[in-house]
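Input/output pair, single chain:
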Amino acid sequence: MHQNSFRSLRRLNAWGCDTGEHVIPSHLLSCFHNLEELEVVDCKAARFLFGINDENRVRKGSGIFRLKSLSLSKLSNLKDVWEKDPEGIIGLQLLKEIRVEECGRLQSLFPASVAKDLTRLQVLQVTKCEELTEIFRKDEKGGEGPTQVFPRLTTLKLEKLPGLEYSIHRSKQQVILTPFSYLFQFFKI
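Output:
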């Protein structure tokens, strides 16, 4: 597919797509440069949202930069959002809203390299993800997650996450995410 095939596409909704293990395979990353909203629902075959390969790593900066809203729901086999750590391939500096629901096999949301870009994130809602253990996966090189995260976060909803074990530290405040099985309220930070 030509790089400019979906040049003007701003919103992508994928419902019930069961054709492959990647919702957006590595060879299509550069086609969605202007994508602002991505919603993926009930795609049973999907194991990864974004495919990453070595060719993507050579062409840094070729991925999704304008994404503002990400919604993932009823993805029973989703193992990870990223097939491999994108390490600067996909910039999410404009992302404001993330909603994840009923992704039973998902273990983490962001590698440390992506988390540092989430400076505009305002809403983070994660519910019914039984195997989720951490919001940030530690850096594969042994480093910790980001030291400052979510400076603009206004809404944090965590519900039915029995395996969650992670803390998020902020200047002057601390939000601790512990293995609560049921957390039913929104937190205003």
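The longest strand covers residues 11-15. The chain has one domain: 11-187.
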